[in-house]
Amino acid sequence: MSLPILEIDALSLALPTGSDRPFAIESLSLHIGAGETLCVVGESGSGKSLTALATIGLLPKAVRPAGGTIRLAGRDLLGLSERAMRDVRGREIGTIFQEPMTSLNPVMRVRDQIAEAFQAHRVLDAKRRIARTLELIAEVGLPDPAAIAGAYPHELSGGQRQRVMIAMALALEPKLIIADEPTTALDVTTQAQILKLLDALRKKHDTAVLFITHDFGVVSEIADRVAVLQHGILVEQGSAEQVLHHPQDAYTKRLLAAVPSLVPPAPKDLGEAPAAFRVDDLSKTYPGRGFLRRRAVKAADGVSFVIRRGETLGLVGESGSGKSTVGRCVMRLIEPDAGAILIGDASIRELTQRQFQPLRRRVQMVFQDPFASLNPRRRVGHIIAEGPIAQGVPRRKALADARTMLGLVGLQPTVAERYPHEFSGGQRQRIGIARALALQPEVLVADEPVSALDVSVQAQILALLQDLQKRLGLAILFVTHDLRVAAQMCDRIAVMQKGRIVELQPTADLFRAPQHAYTRALLDAVPGRFLRPDFDTCFAAAE
Amino acid sequence: MGTLTSLPVAKVRRAREGMRLRVNSSALTGGIILALILVGAAAAPALYPGDPLDMAASPFIWPGTDPAYPLGTDMLGRDIAAGILHGARVSLLIGLVATLVSIAIGVTFGALAGFYGGRIDWALMRATELVQTIPPFLFALAIVAILQPSVPTIVIAIGLTAWPSLARLVRAEVLRLRNSDFVQASISVGASHRRIILLDILPNTFAPVIVSASILIASAILTESSLAFLGLGDPNVASWGGMVGAGREVLRTDWYVATLPGLAIVAAVLGLNLLGDGLNDLLDVRR
Questions:
Q1: What is the residue-wise DSSP string for B181-241?
Q2: Which stretches are transmembrane (chain B) (predicted)?
């Protein structure tokens, strides 16, 4: 094997006293050779991002290296001064962050941001910098380099911005590229393109890539080798084939098992269940923004569907497809322009907010971000009891019921006295579910309820939702971008694109025989399609 | 998930918090200064019973010359130490109450404007701008000149002009919070607007309101002192500004008469500003 580009040996990073564990990372050893991609996988808090930060010398002040070495082509990075480190960053290590929106300076043209790398390291003269910048823009697959070079970040799409980030990271032809969740904020189809691009560039330039991710699907697309971190400890390392298909460690096995399969489970029998929720021809148009170009956006355009009692309808699409708008419109959190919304027999679209207030009990919502959806200044019990109190249940009874609800979602009733910040993301999402169910709704709108959670927690929350649905006969509108989750959760799936439902089919049919070209594109883009071999067998059986 | 601000950093943050309380010297210094002034104000009736405006000894006793009058006496033979301690009561009272008036108006305006938006927002914000165009000190002067110069009128005069900045601050916070998921969640369970504003939104605006309140108290104390300096303070109570104003005439011979209460003003305003700065760091919501 050739000499490794990056060699991390017995690295330990100490957390300040008072943290919940003494070391963020404990005696971690990794190496990456030229042209090789190493994926560091782990859940939140595993220390995977700190590994990246330690390598580029950008650790938060409170975290200190407590032993070990990080060598880049034989040179120890931990011992370098800040000045020397600054020279390494960019020139020898390129970095790509998760959020292409916040990692680019919004008031700087793309060409200036890329050229900054040359300026900072004083390479090339002004003329050649411009030429090289245009070359780079072309190399990362952006159309019309001259136009892109003159654009500001907000004029580009998320995928285009991430391509610009990659161009910046590549500018000085570094030996190592660190990519920290570079595709997490992107849509699946864009993600697939970016992964392909990264892979092609790595091969072309023989760059070593340290790829940080939480997503095993992505791992299976791009990794040569995989390292699995748990609580700062390396639990398993090996070739992608070995780790993904023959995992040795119990934690790796658990993580892999938690990745939802793309094969839908056997459809459940709804019998003669009546329609619980009906949406007809729902439309919402956002007036365009901007001074000169005012273009209205049709976020929902003639959306119609029916959900039966006990049924889950998935609303699937990429960002901007209008799926969240539909979710909020049926809650009347956003006022739709036209259409009908019926809960049972009650038509709620025409009601004023005041008239609708007592009916709100019948349709409830679970929000995406478990950290933003609970008021940090209120006790959990009060948060859950808020709905019943608003609907006229006596305060004392509502608070007592809240404890029962906590039990229902698998938390201790005694936690009612605590504040949200004392809970983990998964626990908070349980609290959010308890709040929605406290009103005994007939319809539950779940807006990406698991997309902010780690896979292992995700599986638990999905199981909880399914269990509650069975027990309470809920009709669930499940909004998600994640086809894996949709496959496991939904009885039928509606695929949305540009505000319209382009396809609505029972889940198994949709996966087996997608009708619309866009659905096929989405399915093709799901990372790690072959991660679970059962998917292929399923297809083979169907054909 | 797995971003640069993921969990380990959150843990680091928690550990850092303890450090920050100790390190935040400006909040501590400000707090100590204010605590001393408060103790002095509280002890004033016990240490110096009787009216501090009464003649106590012969005039122009220099500080440090007579142990019975550690800070000396002024041209009318009034005890300066008694005046400063009693003046602290008046200054703090006026600063506090005027700020409470400001908070009441400002938070109400800001919360309603931010929450309801539309016409209500338009009307309330135009009213706010109208008040902002009035120079606060001239307005206070006018009110005090028309009405009696007494503590309540001074409080009202200051309170009625100081709230626009608070209203804008609260409105901005409310606009931010109004679209937050937890407010949307409360709307979807059918909570009343009153409950949402009082329980969900306002408690989450406390931090910036408290910070600006401490600065507002300081500026109220300054305004009151300025009014008293011009002879428009309440003539029946001892006031720092009034003492500075009175000492002005003997500034060249007996400068301590004006300087000592002046230093008290400096200390109080400095203490409040330091506290406000420190709280701003400590309560920073974005940390």
A1: HHHHHHHHTT--HHHIIIIIIGGGGHHHHHHHHHHHHHHHHHHHHHHHHTT-S-TTS--HH
A2: 21-48, 92-118, 201-222, 255-276
